[in-house]
Design goal:
The chain has 357 residues and is of the alpha/beta class. It folds into 3 domains: 40 residues, no CATH class; 126 residues, Response regulator (Rossmann fold, 3-Layer(aba) Sandwich), CATH 3.40.50.2300; 154 residues, Response regulator (Rossmann fold, 3-Layer(aba) Sandwich), CATH 3.40.50. The chain is 40% helix and 13% strand. The chain has 13 helices and 11 strands. It has a 6-stranded parallel β-sheet, covered by helices on one side. Strands 6-7-8 form a 3-stranded parallel β-sheet. Strand 3, helix 7 and strand 4 form a beta-alpha-beta unit. The longest helix has 17 residues. The radius of gyration is 23 Å and the shape is globular.
């Protein structure tokens, strides 16, 4: 196969080879916009998929052959405002990573700095087996890890530019089962709430939702529907938008009979907004979440959801990292961990046939 060179990338973009080299070096010297263009083009042309095309430091032979002795795994969680040890979702994944590393007598170093130039200063490759990235991570940072030749596993995140192993919950199939359950109860007007562009998991959940509606001949919300593009899903910034939408649904009727939320946090927020609008759950409208965080059980009524095996995902990420270190030439894998439905009191059959007309 013909190798892709920096000169080819430069010609493709109409840039100098020097600018491309700077953009790929991780050392600055070009604008952020130019850097993104170069990274995108390099990915599209297949530059990063080439063996050793972008790797500065190869994995030491002793790290490939053995993991004996006290070694550490780097856990990168740069979005610390929402992804941290105290999080009801991310904290459980981190707990699973920690448990599996303890069993194997390996250390864990948590890094929360998202700036690649600072990230390099904390790395001592001689003492680090590899890295597990948890949640959303910028491409530029992942690119730097890839450049260093550090084995990398991503949990609940994937990057179209960087080839790597990933671990996800089986979001699509789990959402399909949840929506099939709602249709089985008699619901024919379902609406999805979330930001389908926020993450791969949210998008996969939307696909599972859409497939069930299409299979049953039900109306699918338009992709431009504002409830599919909720603002600030991490902090509930969308509250006023959803409140206005609920009011419009009450005026225009018929209202959706079931709201399918992209995660439990959104479901809990929307549940409160329905209460303020005097819409009873589940009699006036059923509601579901996803993830099975502790607060979903404590809600009134408790939220029907999907139990994402968060700790199991952490365990599996460690196992896959060690497999990757032992067998670096293996094809990359996208590992899907099965998730189960949790039936609670926020869902029920529509009150009457009239409610569906």
């Amino acid at each position: 196969m013909k190798r892709i060179t920096m000169q080819q990338i430069a010609d493709h973009l109409g840039l100098s080879k020097f600018a491309v080299s700077k953009a790929l070096s991780g050392k600055g010297g070009v604008s952020e916009a130019t850097k993104k263009r170069v990274i995108q083009a390099a990915s599209e042309l297949g530059y990063f998929g080439q063996k050793s095309a972008y790797v500065k430091n190869q994995i030491p032979a002793e790290r490939k052959a053995s993991i004996h002795g006290k070694r550490s795994v780097l856990v990168l969680m740069p979005n610390t405002r929402f992804q941290n040890k105290e999080s009801l979702y991310w904290g459980k994944i981190l707990e699973g990573i920690s448990e599996e590393l303890d069993v194997r007598q390996l250390g864990m170093i948590i890094v929360s700095d998202s700036r690649s130039e600072d990230f390099l200063h904390v790395l001592n490759l001689e003492g680090i087996l590899g890295m597990i990235g948890v949640g959303q991570i910028e491409s530029s940072l992942l690119l730097e890890v890839h450049r260093l030749g550090l084995p990398l596993i991503l949990v609940d995140h994937e990057d179209a530019l960087i080839p790597t192993d990933t671990v996800f919950a089986n979001n699509r199939d789990s959402m399909s089962r949840l929506c099939t359950h709602l249709v089985g109860l008699g619901h024919t007007r379902l609406h999805f709430l979330g930001d389908i562009q926020f993450s791969s998991s949210f998008h996969d959940r939307w696909i599972g939702f859409r497939e069930v509606l299409e299979l049953n001949g039900l109306t699918v919300p338009d992709r431009q529907d504002p409830m599919l593009r909720l603002r600030g899903v991490e902090i509930g910034e969308y509250g006023s938008d959803v409140k206005e939408w609920i009011a419009a649904q009450k005026r225009n009727k018929p209202m959706p009979s079931a709201l399918v939320c992209a995660n439990d946090s959104i479901a809990l927020h929307v549940r409160q907004l329905l209460k303020e609008a005097d819409i009873e759950v589940p009699a006036g409208m059923a509601i579901t979440g996803f993830d099975n965080i502790d607060d979903a059980y404590r809600s009134d009524p408790p939220i029907t959801t999907v139990d994402v095996p968060k700790q199991a995902m952490g365990h599996r990420a460690v196992k896959r990292l060690l497999e990757r270190i032992s067998n670096p030439e293996q094809p990359y894998e996208k590992i899907l961990v099965c998730a189960e439905l949790v039936h609670r009191d926020s869902t029920a059959a529509p009150v009457s046939a009239d409610a569906q007309k």
